[in-house]
Amino acid sequence: MIRGVAAVLIGAALSVSVIAAEIPSSERKSGYDLMAREIRAMQDDDTANPGMLSVLDGEALWTRKAGTAGKSCADCHGDAQSSMKGVAARYPAFDAARGRPIDLEQRINICRADQQKATPFAFESKDLLALSAYVGRQSRGMPIDIPDDPRLKPFLEAGRDMFNQRQGQLNLSCAQCHNDNWGQKLAGAVIPQGHANGYPMYRLEWQALGSLQRRLRNCLVGMRAVSYALGAPEYVDLELYLMWRARGMPVETPAVRP
Amino acid sequence: MARALINVPAKAKRGDIIEIKTLISHEMETGFRPDNTGKLLPRDIITDFVCKYNGQEIFRAELYPAISANPFFTFTTVATESGTISFEWSGDNGFSATESAKITVE
Amino acid sequence: MMTSNDDKPYATRRRFLIDAAALAGGVSLALTTVPASATPESMRGAIRKVLGEASAKKGKVKIDLPPLIENGNAVALTVSAESPMTAADHVKAIHVFTEKNPQPNVVSIHLGPRAGRASVSTRIRLADSQKVVAIVQMSDGSFWSDELEVIVTLAACLEGV
């Protein structure tokens, strides 16, 4: 299988343009626009969207007391529908204490450790995905809005560099597929522009809800490049860049994708 | 208990055909997937789904491994009277889940 | 770096991929335990179990599936049958089968006149490009059928292959 994919990817790499240019904002399309009608219908209907099952789990977790502090998210944040509105749309956000941006999952775990005095959730665990899906859902429809914060700049640049840099055995960059060849086919599947506008998302390939980091690891494995451990700062830098790249596009969490 | 999402209209006119949508969280492990060592993971699926309207069966499904994870069904029924529409899922390893929704029929 | 909980693709699809890779690269790969897959014969056997001695006529039931499927893990299927759905004349059951999934049965639906309409939607797994068959049983004991060929494509970057 990998040989087959390698052959196709090498073919694609040979035929792509040398300069990887950013997609002009008028041409930006969500993965939603590139999917089949039936899968779009699955995302649009809250009672058909399998990601909503995780959102419901997250809603239950929101009010559950945890840790030695015996507090729930609701105890500090009240009703998520108002307090969390717009939050996911501006993550990853700069964390002054850590001097760098953190993503939503890290933010949730920081609250868990510092405020609830509970063990942080494992990355990609059912509970962490449920909470980030629930919080993300509260921003659905709102435009992604990474602020013009000078403190974010070096990390944004690091993420941009990673996106544009060739890597792995196939010597491909993210930009070559997702900026230059979006809309074309790779092994029978349409290449999306790769916007991080619907995470965590229900991917039919996974038959489960998963995070952006899971998806990035898939890509890196597919490209035969080194993938980092879950929670690595490289992923957060890349996510910051991807969210900046998708600025203005509406949040679709929980999205459904093939 | 497994998480389920039900969509039943709260109100309907007598004689109307209403649409019911159900979604339940379940991995539907087929029994055909190998684990890391190549050994087949044992089957673990929902096998039966029954919907009753004030106790009378109006829809029943026998599920096989070919039903996707997080089984989803959309079906119809005639709104005959006010009451309770109940849902019951059962399957391998003693799996059991129930949900219900109220409907007002005028 | 692969972790131990990477998902494995659906077993039959993996076999299809291994076969495809072997054809493409001329490489012989050791196969892990591979379950038997349905054949047109086993599908016919499963259909025969439903029909008994009767035969099914083409018509009155329609399968709705996208002709080109992006991912075989959750394919939207609707089966609908023409019927007044009265006590005297209604659809009693809808059975769906596939030719190449590891097992031929997909789902069996039991309805009655209270359904109002004989139309059911669900999401199914399709392991390969193949034929899907629906058999409908009417209250008068007659059987009707429809079949559809679909093409299933694969994701480009598969996890844990």
What key attributes describe this structure?
heterotrimer, B: 106 residues, mainly beta, Immunoglobulin-like, five-stranded mixed sheet, three-stranded antiparallel sheet, 8 strands, elongated, C: 161 residues, alpha+beta, 2 helices, 9 strands, 17% helix, disordered N terminus
Characterise this structure:
The complex is a heterotrimer of chains A (258), B (106) and C (161). Chain A is mainly alpha-helical. Chain A has 2 domains: 20-45 and 144-257, Cytochrome c-like domain (Cytochrome Bc1 Complex, Chain D, domain 2, Orthogonal Bundle), CATH 1.10.760.10; 51-137, Cytochrome c-like domain (Cytochrome Bc1 Complex, Chain D, domain 2), CATH 1.10.760. Chain A is built from 12 helices and 7 strands. Chain A has helices spanning 2-15, 31-34, 37-44, 51-62, 73-77, 80-83, 104-114, 126-137, 153-164, 174-178, 212-222, 233-245; strands at residues 93-95, 100-102, 185-186, 189-190, 201-203, 208-210, 256-257. With 106 residues, chain B is mainly β. Chain B has one domain (4-105): Immunoglobulins (Immunoglobulin-like), CATH 2.60.40.10. Chain B contains no helices and 8 strands. In chain B, the strands form 2 sheets. Chain B has a 5-stranded mixed β-sheet with strand order 2-8-7-4-5, with no helix packed on it. In chain B, strands 1-3-6 form a 3-stranded antiparallel β-sheet, with no helix packed on it. In chain B, β4 (46-53) and β5 (56-63) form a beta hairpin. The N and C termini of chain B lie far apart (33 Å). Chain C is α+β, with helices and mostly antiparallel strands. Chain C has helices at 11-25, 40-51; strands at residues 56-58, 61-64, 68-69, 75-81, 91-98, 105-110, 118-124, 130-138, 143-152. In chain C, the strands form 2 sheets. In chain C, strands 1, 3, 5, 6, 8 and 9 form a 6-stranded mixed β-sheet that branches. A 3-stranded antiparallel β-sheet of chain C has the order 2-4-7, with no helix packed on it. The interface between A and B is medium-sized, with 11 and 16 residues. β5 (56-63) of chain B pairs antiparallel with β6 of chain C, so a sheet runs across the interface.
